[in-house]
Every structure is written in C-alpha cells, then in structure tokens.
Amino acid sequence: MSELIEIRNLVKIFPPNVIALNDVSVYFHEGEIHALIGENGAGKSTLMKILYGMQPADSGQILINGKTVQFANPGEAIAARIGMVHQEILLINEYTVWENVVLGMEPVGLFHRIDRDKARQQVRTKIDEFQFNLDPDARVADLSVAARQKVEILKLLFRNVSILILDEPTAVLTPQEIPQLFDELRRLRDDGHTILFISHHLDEVIELSDRITVLRKGQKVATIDTKDVTEKMLAEMMVGREVIFDKIKDGIPPGVAVLDCQNISLRSPITNKMLLQNISFQVHASEIVGIAGVEGNGQLELVEVMMGLRAADQGSLKINGSDLSGSSILERRKFMAFVSQDRSRMGACLTASIKENVIMTHHKLNSAFTKSAGFILDFAHAASFAEQIRKTFDVQLNSIEDEMRSLSGGNQQKVILGRELSLDAPFVLLDQPTRGLDVGSIEYVHHQIIQMSHDNRAILLISADLEELFRITDRILVLHRGEIVADLVTDDTNITEVGYLMLEGADHA
Amino acid sequence: MNVIIGLINGMISSATPLLLSALGGSLTFYAGIFNIAMEGMMLSGAFFAVLGSYFLHSWVAGIICGILGALLMALIFILFSIVLKVDEFVTGVGLNMFSLGLTTYLLRQIFSVKGAFTNPGIVSVPRIHLPFLESIPFLGKIISGQNLIVWLALIATIVCNFVVFRTQFGLRLRAAGYNRTCLDTSGVSSNRIQAISLIICAVLCGLAGSFLSLGYVTLFSENMSAGRGWISLAAVILVSGKPLGIALVSLIFGLADGLGLYLQASLPSQFTAMLPYVATLIALFFYSMKSINTKVEI
C-alpha cells in the first residue's frame, strides 16, 4: 500500500487561544478504512475540515500522491476526488434521489433542458454498481436517515470521489442500520476507495477500521493497526488515563420517596392509541432509577407529561408531597432539574450566548440573578456563574459571550448539565444525558450523577444505553408500549434480561 | 356582449403588468430571496421607458430603456443583499422608496411637470392586429388588437414554467431556495444563481413597467405602479411561486380591477378602486383556510 495522503505538521489555532491542532502529522494509505478517534474538541473534525478545504490551516502541509495541495473550498477538494459526508445531512428534501445526486452536474439537452432519462439512468447505474438499494425516483423527504446518508455517499461517488471522509456517520443511525452501512463501506474499500471516518464509538471503530489514529487535545497520540488494540487501550489513549467501564454506583440506602407518580395515562388524540398506561413509580432520595426501553415506547411522552409540556389524561405527580399534576412548568422547575435529549431545541437556545443559556430557568427561580425586583438581569452575576460552570464542568470555549452553537455537541451538553445540576431541585430528570458524548465526557457526567445522588437527590435516568443503566442505577424500570413491564433491582438482573423485556414486554415470563 | 368583451380586455390589460412582475418574483422566490423590490423595479421601468421612447422616438428604445431602468434597481439589490449581505427586506424597502423618489425627481427635473407627463412625442408600444382572426365573432375582438407586451407576458409564462421545472438552471434555482449550502457544496455558487434570478426578475419588471407607461396608457405619472408590485408579491406567495398559478391569480386580480372600472358608473370610485386589494385579502383568506385544514389532517 502506498501513502495516498500525507499530512505534515498541521497547526490550527482558533483565536484567541484555542489550539485545535498542534503539529499533527498523519498518513493515510490507499484503500484502507482509517478511523479518527478522540474526545470532543480533540481536533478530529477540524483536521478533516482542513483536508476538505472548509478551513485553512495556519501552518503545515497536505500532500496527496506526493504533491502539495491546498484546497480553498470543498469544490476543489471534490475535483481532487476527496468527498466528505457531514454529520448533518446536506440534501434537498423536496428533490428526488436522482435530482439530488446530479445537482451541479446535470446531463442536459436542447435549451439546457435536463435529460431526465439519461440522469436517472446514470444514477441507477451508480446505485447498482455499489449495491445501494435506493430508488432514484424516491423523494428524499420520504427516506429514512440511513437512506439519506446513502444518497449523500452516492452523490460523492457520482463525482468520482476516491477518498471518502465521514464525520460520525453512525450518530444518526439506529443500531439496526449500522451493520448495513459498515458492509457498504467495506465494499467501497474493497473497490479501491479510501475511507476516513470520525467516531467516538470504540466498538464500531474496532469492528470497521484497518488503522486508527487517536487524537487528544489537538495532538496526535498514535496511529495503530486495529488488530493490535482493545477498546480499553483506545479509551485510555483518548482520555490519557485509565477508564473504568464497571459499575460505579455504590449502594447507599435510599431515603424517603421524593418523586411519586401514580396511574399516569395518556391517549393519543389522533390515533386513540394508549401512549402511556397506568404508569406508577417512585424515586427515593439518593436513588438513581433508570428507564430502559426501545425508543418510541413512551419515553418521550412520559418526559412531556412530567415536565408539564403535555397534560396527562389521568394520574398524579407529587414531589416531596406537593401535588404538581396541574402545575405550570415554572412551578415544576422549582422541584425538578431537567436535561433534555434534544439539545438544540429544548435543552438550549443555540443562537443565544453561552452566558444567557447558563442562566435560563435560574433567572426565574433565583433572585440573585436579577436586580430591581426581578425586572433587570444581573449580568455580572450571570458571568461569574457561567465562569464557574466552565471551570467545574471543564467546558472548552472561547468566551462565554459566544453563541451556544459555536460549541461542539459535548461542550453544549456540559453547559446544559452545569446549568441543571446547579439548580437546587430535589428531583433530577435526565433524558439521554450522555447521547453524543465521548468516553471521557460520559465518565465525567456519570460521576456528576453519582455525586448528586450523594446529595440526597432523587434521579430518574432515561437511557437507550443499557451499559450506562447498569453502570450507575439502583433500579431499572422497563418501558414497553407505554407500560412499565418490569421494576428490577439492578444488581439482581442482567443486560440480557432487560434487553428481552424491552423487546418483548412482560409476556415472555 | 360588448360589455363582456370590454371586461375581458380590461382584465387582460390589468393582469399583464401583474403577471410579468410576479413571474420575476417567482424566480427570486424559488432562489430563496425575499424580494419585495418588484414595485420599485416596475416603477423605474415605467419611467425610463417613457424617457427612452420620448427622446429616442422609438418604442423599442423605450422598452430597452425601461428594462435598463429596472436593471439599475436589481444591480443595487444584488450589491446590497448578495455582495454586502444586508437584510433583503431592508434592501427592498429602501429600493422601493428610492425608486419612487428618483422617478419623481427626474420627472420634475427633465420634463418640468408635476404629477404626470404626457406628450404626443411618446411612442407607445403597438397593438398586434391579426386580420384573419379578427373576423371570428367574440374571440376575434379579444385575440386581435392586444398589445405586443401582452403576448410577451404569455410567452414569458410558458418559458418561466419550462425554465423552473425542466432545465438545469431551474433545478439549481430551486436548490438555492431550498438549501443553498447543499447547492454550494454541489459545486454551484448559490450567490451567482440568486444574482441571475434577480437580473431576470428586473427584465420582467422592466417589461411590466414599459407596459404600464407605453401600453396601458401613454404617459408617466408619479407612483404609477401604485402597489402592483406588492400585489404581484402576494400572488407569488399565494401560489408558492408556480408560474401557471401566477397567471391564474393575475387574471383574477385583473378581473377585479376591470370590474372596478365598470362599477364606477354606479359606485364611488374610491370604493371601486379598492376591489383588487379586497380581492387580494379574500384570496389570502381562502388560501390560509386551505392550509389550516391540511394542517389539521396531518
């Protein structure tokens, strides 16, 4: 194998003081699947964006087939046969698959009329060549996320790209869709394509890649052959210290019942289907209760009902004895901290500054954040509070005045966690709090959750990650078709049993 | 019978400027530009058409000058909203006011009149008489004798429909509106596509303006476009830009306008002049009812 891409001593600095890449040198062989791993902010995406011409490097060189290149924009990179699939999918939903694929290089006839038959034929040939199983005439809006991703890859292949960069391709896929993507990527590699992919799922990296480059805080830790490493070794290289995947929840005896939900039911007004059926459970002080379940089995509705976003048809919700069943959201927030799984819409306002995001909810509940009888925000106090969260939660940011969206997903999540955990609420509702985070951040979040349980708080953790539930919970409730089908003590059960209950409900017993 | 023929002809001449400028607006609509400057482009077109026709003694020169006048507005729009990234709404409002001020100022400076300039020296755009078809009863009096620009508007409708939905440019044009980042990463500059759409829009608005001052009547008066650019914007939004839909909506507005003229005999003219605007509101009302209903079904 020859050196296809050679990256030499790349440096990238985001003013004023963030060193995104610090003297990074990597080689990519032709025809390999090369994984780039690292924590949030380690520089993986920045490295790929520089290679793809989306950002200029401050110093260093990129050589392709021995020739120095410097792309001013992605168009030049594509012309040099390098293509990138971004995390957020860039397609036109209103167009069909073939229209999306040919956009920019349409075959035309008289009067620049698009030769539809020819375009469709060209796209179909490519689909067949790579066995993509797509319908060229399907509208992208009607496709699943996995299929849209395939269309993006197809679009690049249509431009004869031989080097494919994928930025966390599995983040948007369901577990069932991932093996198919991997098969396709392997087929592409066997076809002579070179694939660079960014991930922080170590199991996926080990399964798919030939070689792995580990980045940490802008520096390259190592490039290694996948066959020589284990997940544990990779995690240590990424984080820079030992990471323990074992159970870390200590069995402190739970205190009094804090949260008390009784007989909560909700019926869909549209389909008349029961979304939640007689949900009753308690969470005690110092206790961490997990809710397991396949997505779409009532988790979203339960969160909405508990937060007061949606009124239940029946049932009651009490915290420390106060009945909150009919209370406003603000009233509930006096008792509840809440981390939403939807960071960009419910958890934060991406166009507001980090400082403003940090004081949301606090500004209503804590009079220290306002002056003049609550009419004027005290930004000096807000700034010191934001700086405090930045320090305690180790948020990588330029300035607390920057927009929230300038942060990476992991850092946004840290800001949100910092805000919510600083509320003095007796009950904490966590909806997939570690989704999209890297190993180091997940470990950090888990320790924070354990810490809260030591503070006598009651915690409800909704998670799709069973390993996470087994690592930090005392009890696991299994939600299946809107019903709690099992209430298990974590120490007395195992992943197989919970997995089975999630899929089959209680009927298997 | 003559009443009906008169009404239909009135409808066609009222609809023509709306149709032309709305077609221009439809292109910028598809390109994802919030373009409210059709009013200003049309007004500028109307003034420069008269200027060209009067001084160069030719209606062809008039139309060309009208188009150039509208293009001037488009180039300012491109400079501010595409090159300098100023808000499109602010740019549009500014341009419309600038156009009104400029044409009024030039009217008073060049022709030394206030209100309106009318002169036998202005050469109007000819009507097309079709001798063979003229003899057909009823239809003959509608098909024959229409202004040249009316036919141009009809052709423009068909061409726009073809360009938007069938051609390479159309695919890229709509892509610019749907998701410009996607278009840019596909190797096509969305700025370039948007600029082209504005230029074509100006050509069409220039024609609309020329029709107002050299076809509909042969004079220029201050604020001659009188809100037609805004009505055409409403038409574009009403049918989500579809050129054939725009043709239909323009005819409905034209009918309301023509009807207004007829009703002047029995109603105060202030009320009859309201008709096109009332028609706009009614159309908007029914359109929103339709979209509310479809939302409930989902």
Main sheet makeup of chain A: 6 strands, mixed
CATH class of the largest domain in chain A: Alpha Beta
Number of helical regions of chain B: 14
Radius of gyration of chain B: 19 Å
CATH architecture of chain B: Orthogonal Bundle
Summarize this structure as a short list of keywords or feature phrases.
heterodimer; A: about 500 residues; alpha/beta; Rossmann fold; 3 domains; six-stranded mixed β-sheet; 18 helices; 22 strands; globular; B: about 300 residues; mainly alpha; ABC transporter involved in vitamin B12 uptake, BtuC; two-stranded antiparallel sheet; 14 helices; about 75% helix
What does this structure look like?
The complex is a heterodimer of chains A (509) and B (298). Chain A is of the alpha/beta class and 509 residues long. Chain A has helices spanning 44-51, 74-79, 97-102, 116-129, 145-158, 178-190, 202-208, 231-239, 299-307, 329-333, 343-347, 354-359, 362-365, 379-392, 409-421, 439-454, 466-472, 495-504; strands at residues 3-14, 18-29, 33-37, 59-64, 67-69, 82-85, 163-167, 194-199, 211-216, 219-225, 257-267, 274-284, 288-292, 314-319, 322-323, 336-339, 370-371, 376-377, 427-431, 458-462, 475-480, 483-489. In chain A, the strands form five sheets. Chain A has a six-stranded mixed beta sheet, with helices on both faces. A six-stranded mixed beta sheet of chain A has the order 16-19-20-13-21-22, with helices on both faces. In chain A, strands 2-1-4-5 form a four-stranded antiparallel beta sheet, with helices on one face. Chain B has a single domain (2-297), classed as ABC transporter involved in vitamin B12 uptake, BtuC. A two-stranded antiparallel sheet of chain B has the order 1-4. In chain B, strands 2-3 form a two-stranded antiparallel ribbon. The chains are: A alpha/beta (509), B mainly alpha (298). The A-B interface holds A 74-75, 78, 90-95, 99-100, 103-106, 108, 111-114, 155 and B 162, 166-169, 171-172, 174-175, 178-179, 181-183, 185-188.
